[in-house]
Amino acid sequence: MSILLRLYPRPWRDRFEEEFVAVLSDRPPSLAARADIVRGAIDAWLQPQLAGPDRVPDRHGFTTLAGLLVLVAALLIAANGSLTGWFGLLALAFATNRVGHARLAKLCLALFVGFLLFPLGGGFISLVAWAMLAIAPSNFVSTATERPDPHTASGTGS
Amino acid sequence: MPQLFHEFGRFAEPSLYILVSLSSGPKHGYAIMADVEEISGSPMGPGTLYGALARLERRGLIEALAPDERRRPYRLTALGATALEGQLEHLTAFARTGFARLRGTAT
Predict the structure, then answer these.
(1) Average pLDDT over every residue of A7-14
(2) What are the pLDDT digits (tens) for B60-71?
(3) Which of A5, A49, B26, B73 is spaced 20 to 30 A from B60 at the CA atom?
(4) What does pTM read for this prediction?
């Protein structure tokens, strides 16, 4: 059963794993319940803010710097028409969203869509996507500000 | 269904069941599951239970209490009670309209 729980993101497990295991020990899960757990894991990955702060503290700007470096690399590769670069952008979008850089994630998605549509003749939409780049710098220099986390009272804050 | 529950997507109905369950007092996960099964007539999966609990807690409709060994009870907040009351009133009005139309007494 612990294998299924490993499907959940770390912040979610830090918050709910112990009581979740207690529930499963009270009632061993049926096949349908196991499927429900997997579905719940997908939801937990799609909604990471449900079990943690909206932004992961990034006081040293490490994730911002790393994200920008990967973004530049992905752009260089994608500019050559490589699928690796495109999907690198997509992966970066998910990764940055995961650590709380929602705006950087949106930018990556916009670039991904832009690169995807441009060769298909979607010039206008592509330009709109690229326009988002113009507003990006103000996002990059902003420091992480966390919304009060209801779970820190139980001592899970970092 | 009010906007609050619309935001919960597929967790809207399970969330409502959980709020009803907690309206009679704090309960931990397994007790909620058992109670919801009794109320609704169908089991609630653990993934759905914790997806709904996380949303309800995030919106301040329920709050977690100190864990009792590994089991953490939850209780309804004042905001949660208000939201539940509004939702039940909405459903009551909906049911009244439905019955009236079914019996042909509605205008």
Answers:
(1) 90
(2) 999 999 988 888
(3) A5
(4) 0.61
Number of domain units in chain B: 1
CA distance B67 to chain A (A): 9
Per residue in A104-132, is it b (16+ CB within 10 Å) or e — as a string?
bbbbbbbbbbbbbbeeeeeeeebeebeeb
Query: Residue B39's domain is classified under what CATH number?
Result: 1.10.10.10
Q: Does some domain include residue B107? A: no
**pLDDT tens by residue, A74-98:** 677 666 666 666 677 777 777 766 6
Q: Which residue has the tokens 């208000």?
A: B82
Q: Which domain holds residue B57?
A: 3-102
User: Is B38 domain-assigned?
Assistant: yes
B56 CA to chain A: closest CA distance, Å? 9
Give residue limits of the domains in chain A: 2-51, 62-140
ipTM of the prediction: 0.85
In a domain, B69, yes or no: yes
First to last CA, chain B: 23
Q: Find residues 49-78 of chain B whose CB sits inside 8 Å of chain A.
A: 49-51, 53-55, 57-58, 60, 63-64, 67, 69-72
CA dihedral (A34, A35, A36, A41) positive or negative: positive
